[in-house]
UniProtKB/TrEMBL annotation:
Organism superkingdom: Eukaryota
Family in the record: Belongs to the small GTPase superfamily. Rab family.
Protein name, per record: Uncharacterized protein
Origin species: Hibiscus sabdariffa
């Protein structure tokens, strides 16, 4: 690798959206700090974490934003979405209403790439089947994955798939 290549750096902004209490904050804390909080309160203020991923030998940084408890439709301010390259759109597999609202979240933004069915550890109280999630993702042209912030299932994969996709498509060079 030449010196020039070694200095290349990529930075993408990613937002996490979806209904309240689907597990957005916990997915981010699991991914960035390997932490899970069973009694997490609504995020106060704006929160983001920067994570580095190595893709094709290059360091790709993702600035991942949490909604800061502003999950009502239209209440998420335009500043939250501004400059975002991609999104994780999360629902809770054990709460049907959060899945039914996915379409409304999609109306809010046209950059969603990844549909995330969280809490897949709650198999006993599952209300949304894996097939339903897959079909919705297919019809909307999204990637799809089921995750659990609780037991770490697929959390890293969910974030890294969207980071990789952005890198492959609409990368913004910052250096
Ligand atoms: P947010 O409002 O979407 O940011 O949701 P939070 O991250 O605050 O999580 C809401 C609640 O769901 C909390 O009580 C979490 O402990 C719980 N939770 C989050 N992710 C999971 C998961 O993967 N499995 C289970 N069983 N509970 C989860």
């Amino acid at each position: 690798m030449s010196d020039e290549e070694a200095e290349e750096e990529y930075l993408f902004k990613i937002v996490i959206i979806g209904d309240s209490a689907v597990g957005k904050s916990n997915l981010l804390s699991r991914y960035s700090r390997n932490e899970f909080n069973a009694h997490s309160k609504a995020t106060i203020g704006v929160e983001f974490q920067t994570q580095s991923v190595e893709i094709d030998g290059k360091e790709v940084k993702a600035q991942i934003w949490d909604t800061a408890g502003q999950e009502r439709f239209r209440a998420v301010t335009s500043a939250y979405y501004r400059g975002a390259f991609g999104a994780l759109l999360v629902y809770d597999i054990s709460r049907r209403a959060t899945f039914d609202n996915v379409a409304r979240w999609l109306d809010e933004l046209n950059l969603a790439r990844m549909l995330v069915g969280n809490k897949c550890d709650l198999e006993d109280s599952r209300e949304v089947s894996l097939g339903e999630g897959k079909r919705l993702a297919e019809s909307e042209g999204l990637f799809f994955i089921e995750t659990s912030a609780l037991d770490s299932t697929n959390v890293e994969t969910a974030f890294e798939m969207v980071i990789r996709e952005i890198y492959n498509n609409v990368s913004r060079k910052v250096l």
